[in-house]
Structure prediction request, 102 residues.
Amino acid sequence: MLIDELKGKALDEFFEGIMTLETVEECYSFFDDLCTVNEIKTLFQRFQVAKMLYNHHTYSEIEAEACASTATISRVKRSLHHGNDMYDVVFKRMQNKKNSEK
Prediction:
């Protein structure tokens, strides 16, 4: 994993803090305090690109909807297909939650 070099008590504590957030509104407030608008846009865009790739959208559709460059799309695609499979975990959990709320 690329993040291995950052692993440690401080990063564990950071992730544990994020995991305490309970609502979307709490996430808005926390990330507003933590990040710049551009940092949030970058994170959101990568997530959006991953979701669209996961759902088999084309590069041109992703470029148009997510306003992402082909370089960003390629980078996210590499993580989606050769990463830690966490996009798959997250997207499946989101779908399961959506299905259980129906």
Remarks:
- The two ends are 36 Å apart (CA to CA).
- The CA atoms of residues 59 and 70 lie 7 Å apart.
- The chain is about 75% helix and 0% strand.
- The chain has a mean pLDDT of 95.
